[in-house]
Each structure stands twice: as C-alpha cells, then as structure tokens.
Amino acid sequence: MKEFLDDGSSDGPPIWAIFGDLMTGLVGVFVLILVWTLGFQLELAKNLENAEAERERELARRQVLEQALAGPLSSGRITISDGRIGISGSVLFALNSDRLQDEGRDLLAVLAEPLDVFLEENDQLLMISGFTDDLPIQSGNLSFADNWELSAQRALTVTRELVAAGLPADRVFAAAFGDQQPVAPNLDESGRALNRRVEMAPVPRIVSLEEPLPNG
C-alpha cells in the first residue's frame, strides 16, 4: 500500500501554496471592502456637509425676509413660520368673499416691494396659497361651488393684487387647498378663524428646459 502514500514528490502544487493564494485573495477582498467603506463614509460626510451648508443658507434667507417684513410683523398683521408668511383671512376678505378689504389691499401694497427684492436676490418664486375652514359654503352664496373654489379665488385675488402692486407676474403663482390643511382644530370659531388664511411661501424656481443649465 506504500504506492498510495504521499511521499511529497507529487506533481501537484504544495498545500501551503494553495493556502497562500487563498489568503492573498481574502486580503484583496478585505482591501476592496475597506476602500468601498471609506469611499462611502467620505461621500456621506460630504452630503451631510452640503446639507448643513444649505440649511444655513436657508436660515439666512429667512432672517433676511423677516428683517424686510419687520413692520408688518411687529404690528401683528402677518406671521412667519418655517419661511411661510401667513395672513389671517379676516384681514384680507369678508366671510365667504374673494373681494379684498381695504385693510388687506393696503397690507399687500406694503408687502410687494420687500417680497420683490427678496425673490430677485434669491432667484425664487412666491407661492400664494388659499385655505378655508371646514364649514360648507352658505347656500345663499352662488359665487362658489365649494371651499376649493373659494380658496382658489382668494389665492388668485391676492396674486393679482401683488402683481398690480409691482411684483413681477413671472415670480408668483397661486395654489388652492380648501379646508384640507388646517393649522387648528375646526371645533369653534377661534380655530376656524385661524384656518381661514392665505399663505405666501418663497420656493425654488424651476429651470425651464429651454434655458441652458449652469456650467453647460
């Protein structure tokens, strides 16, 4: 049976060479994983840094906007929360109406110029959003089919008034939310009064496909 024993003179590669090749392969895989992990961490750190820088820029823009609207803010005629300018519906409109009251028209005239400067400097648009409470339109009012239509007409009225006061028409647009985005429970008149509002929010301008992209 000696002919079946391995005397070390076999023509095949020695076992230590195979083991060495295996270890080399494992080390190579480990290095690749390490490189990928480091690259992922660097990319994540870069993304976090960019996000923090954008957050700081957004905060600075909001502070500039608040400074520009210091007068109406101090008088309580408007509020600013998370970059959104809120105006009570009772300041702008009578109940179930889309016609501006004198107080509302005067307020929008004051807001137009600082908003124009802010939008121009930051290359942004202004979204005008109309909101209502949850009460249905009174049966005697034939002007609006529902709260969606009322909120839409109020947003359009504010948009047109701002344009008439000097805000460029290509910097502003209207949106309607009806009673779908309340800021207070519609349980009593005080809550409903808060929900009857118009909000103005600067938003990024969408680059037209016909315009050349930056750096190319």
Automatic annotation (TrEMBL):
Start and end residues of each OmpA-like domain: 80-206
Superkingdom field: Bacteria
UniProt-listed PROSITE patterns: OMPA_2
Coiled-coil segments: 41-68
SUPFAM superfamilies in alphabetical order: OmpA-like
Keywords: Coiled coil, Membrane, Transmembrane, Transmembrane helix
Transmembrane annotation, as ranges: 15-38
Pfam families in UniProt: OmpA (PF00691)
PANTHER family noted in UniProt: LIPOPROTEIN YIAD-RELATED, STATOR ELEMENT OF FLAGELLAR MOTOR COMPLEX
NCBIfam families linked: PRK09040.1 (NF006547)
Descriptive protein name: OmpA family protein
Organism: Congregibacter brevis
